[in-house]
Each structure stands twice: as structure tokens, then as C-alpha cells.
């Protein structure tokens, strides 16, 4: 794995950095939690700015509005966004649906859906998990029956991030019950304004409702919205999931490093028994462990990108990145709670909360990390079967 960047890539990094410095308002930096409404507005406005500056989905082909940039340049772009603490935007359309349509979508689907995603005009959410089909996604029961040139959909989805403000949903539905469960699934795009769709936000322990449940009651969706083939949607979904678990993390090592620097500041500025927590030998060891983990995660991400540069599709190593990221996040936020001590019990924005309760929010949010995008148990099974070759 070659970890050096070419002179052309270094020049590209400078261009990105210069543009971000000129266009990112200081108040948009996301180190401190915001209200849900503020985050929504900032993410939408940032997506618009990226589009106007020509930086929206830079690795997309030029014919669909991208720069046709290389994966290495996409990595550099995400790293510079992370270094600047820029908002991540509303990424489901760009990072998950876009790559799926490139591989499986018709030309009509690409022309209809990709430009609005680039412009930030349309927000997408994901409709995969169900109340009884999370870790075992292929057990999903949302039913779709072909009626003429439409699918009629009935069922429920859950944990759909940003569902309450999404315009469209890419979802998995069961279209055949008489075949093995992985083979009777269809991948379909659903306009959430269609009659019969109900979206209900779910309040989380963080106090926000990013996650939602979506109900479908006799929802009629044109067959032209099916991505790939009827009953072959599982293979389409795997493309979506591997991008969710791999290329979606390109900027995360830098964002974790930023978090680690803030964690070190917390230790230096928090005193117990008259001395800073940064002088506690146990805390120092745990901070060192966090630094090692962040560096290790960066190389996992680089390895994934290197395989993509060689022309390989994202595979089981994407599960390694997702598993490592989610459990590292929990360990880091648990360390923050240990450093804060009794102050960790205060809720965000309490009068005496340290750093405005930022770490309390991150700690609570991290509970979802080992569940969202596939549980840690599922990721370990994937690694065991596909990398270690162990039996099921």
C-alpha cells in the first residue's frame, strides 16, 4: 500500500483547502452539538455551497455533474472537509444511492435522480431495517405486489436516518415468498409524498429524532422506480451497504483526530483532587490507546481505498472499517465520561455541564454506532466467513 500522494494530488489538496477556508463560515463548524433545526439548515446550505462551488460528489462521472475525480482525490477532499470541521451534509443520496445507480440504474433513472441529489434539492433516506428484520435484513416482510405497471407496497421500515425531512426513500421490499429469502427481494425508490406513506420521528436518548419509522399502506410505486431486477434487489443492496460501510468513512479518521484533540483538551482542563486529569497515569494510558486506535483506523480506510484504486469492489474489508469505527467511537466517548467524572451526569446545555455537554451528547449518540449500518455481531460474522473462511 503506497501512502504517498502525487504532486498533482498535493496540488488538488491545496485547491480544496483554499476553497474551504474562503467559503466555510466559522459558525458552521460542527464541533459543538446544535439543535436539530440548526443542523438541518446548515447541512442543506452547505450542500448547496458545495454544488455552487463545483465540489458536490466530485468522484461522480462528469456526464452526471461530478468532476470525474479519482478515489484518491475523493479521499483528499473528505480529509480536508474533516480538517476544517465542515458539516458532513445530507449524504444518503450522494454516498449511497448515487454509486448504486451508477452500477444498476437505467439511464432514465440516472438522468432523473442524480442531478437533484447533486444540487441538494432532494433529500434521501434509507428504508432497509424493519422491527423484525435488522441484523437479519433478509427476513424483511414489507410486501410489494405487482399490479399492472406499479408495485403496491404494504409494511413498515424503522431507523431511517433523516426520514422526517427526506423527499425520497430507497428501500427493500419482498416481492416473492416461494424462493430463498435473499432471492425474493426488490430494490425500489419511493417518493415519500405518495399517498399511503406515513413518516413518524423516533425520539432518541440524545434528545433528537434523526431516526424515523416509515409506514406504507397500499402505496403505489411505478415499476420504473425499481433499481436492477425484480427479486434481485439483495445484490443491489450489497452495493449500497458496502459504500455505506467504506467510502462513507473517508473523512472519519480526521474527524476522530479532531475529537481526540478535544478529548486531550478536556483532560488538561478538568481537575480532580487538585490536578489536571491529563496527569493521571491511567487516563494518559487510555489517551495513548485512543491515539493508536485513530491511527490504525486511518490505515484501515487507506487500505480500503487502495483496493478500490486497484479496481476491486468494496468487499468484506468494509465491515472491518465499520466495526472498528463504531466500537472505537464508544471507547473514546466512554473515556470522556471517565474524565468528566460526576459532571458526566449532567445533560447537554446544563448550567454546570463541561464543554456545554458536548461529550454527553456524543456518548449517548455512540450507543447507536454498533447497531446502525449493521450490528457489530453481523460485521464479525461477515469477517469470519469471508476473510477468515470460517463455517457459518
Q: Overview of this structure, please?
A:
By secondary structure, the protein is of the alpha+beta class. The protein folds into three domains: 7-89, Butyryl-Coa Dehydrogenase, subunit A, domain 1; 124-232, Butyryl-CoA Dehydrogenase, subunit A, domain 2 (Beta Barrel), CATH 2.40.110.10; 245-386, Up-down Bundle (Butyryl-CoA Dehydrogenase, subunit A, domain 3), CATH 1.20.140.10. It is 45% helix and 14% strand. The protein has eleven helices and ten strands. The strands form three sheets. Strands 1-4-5-8 form a four-stranded mixed sheet. It has a four-stranded antiparallel sheet with strand order 2-3-7-6, with no helix packed on it. A hairpin with a 2-residue loop joins strand 2 and strand 3. The protein starts with 6 loop residues before the first helix and ends in a 6-residue tail after the last helix.
Amino acid at each position: 500500500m503506497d501512502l504517498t500522494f502525487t504532486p498533482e494530488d498535493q496540488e488538488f489538496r491545496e485547491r480544496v483547502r483554499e476553497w474551504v477556508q474562503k467559503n466555510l463560515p466559522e459558525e458552521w463548524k460542527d464541533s459543538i452539538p446544535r439543535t436539530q433545526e440548526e443542523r438541518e439548515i446548515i447541512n442543506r446550505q452547505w450542500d448547496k455551497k458545495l454544488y455552487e462551488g463545483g465540489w458536490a460528489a466530485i468522484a461522480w462521472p462528469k456526464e452526471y455533474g461530478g468532476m470525474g475525480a479519482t478515489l484518491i482525490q475523493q479521499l483528499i477532499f473528505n480529509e480536508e472537509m474533516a480538517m476544517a470541521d465542515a458539516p458532513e451534509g445530507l449524504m444518503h443520496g450522494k454516498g449511497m444511492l448515487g454509486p448504486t445507480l451508477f452500477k444498476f440504474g437505467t439511464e432514465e433513472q440516472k438522468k432523473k435522480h442524480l442531478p437533484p441529489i447533486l444540487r441538494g434539492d432532494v433529500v434521501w433516506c434509507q428504508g432497509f431495517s424493519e422491527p423484525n428484520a435488522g441484523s437479519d435484513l433478509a427476513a424483511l416482510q414489507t410486501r410489494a405486489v405487482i399490479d399492472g405497471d406499479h408495485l403496491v407496497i404494504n409494511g413498515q421500515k424503522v431507523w431511517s436516518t433523516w426520514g422526517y425531512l427526506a423527499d425520497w426513500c430507497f428501500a427493500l421490499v419482498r416481492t416473492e415468498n416461494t424462493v430463498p429469502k435473499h432471492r425474493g427481494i426488490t430494490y425500489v425508490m419511493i417518493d415519500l409524498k405518495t399517498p399511503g406513506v406515513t413518516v413518524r420521528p423516533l425520539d432518541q436518548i440524545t434528545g433528537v429524532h434523526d431516526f424515523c419509522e416509515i409506514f406504507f399502506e397500499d402505496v403505489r410505486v411505478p415499476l420504473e422506480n425499481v433499481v436492477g431486477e425484480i427479486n434481485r434487489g439483495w445484490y443491489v443492496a450489497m452495493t449500497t451497504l458496502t459504500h455505506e460501510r467504506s467510502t462513507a468513512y473517508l473523512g472519519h479518521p480526521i474527524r476522530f483526530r479532531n475529537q481526540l484533540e478535544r478529548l486531550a483538551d478536556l483532560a488538561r482542563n478538568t481537575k480532580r483532587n487538585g490536578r489536571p486529569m491529563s496527569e493521571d497515569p491511567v487516563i494518559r494510558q487510555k489517551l495513548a490507546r485512543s491515539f493508536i486506535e485513530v491511527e490504525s483506523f486511518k490505515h484501515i480506510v487507506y487500505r480500503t481505498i487502495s483496493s478500490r484504486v486497484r479496481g476491486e469492489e468494496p468487499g468484506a474489508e468494509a465491515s472491518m472499517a465499520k466495526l472498528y469505527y463504531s466500537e472505537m467511537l464508544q471507547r473514546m466517548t466512554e473515556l470522556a465520561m471517565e474524565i468528566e467524572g460526576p459532571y458526566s451526569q449532567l445533560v447537554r446545555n446544563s448550567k454546570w455541564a463541561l464543554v456545554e455537554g458536548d461529550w454527553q451528547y456524543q456518548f449517548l449518540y455512540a450507543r447507536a454506532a454498533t447497531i446502525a449500518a449493521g450490528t457489530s455481531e453481523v460485521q464479525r460474522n461477515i469477517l469470519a466467513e469471508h476473510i477468515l473462511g470460517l463455517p457459518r
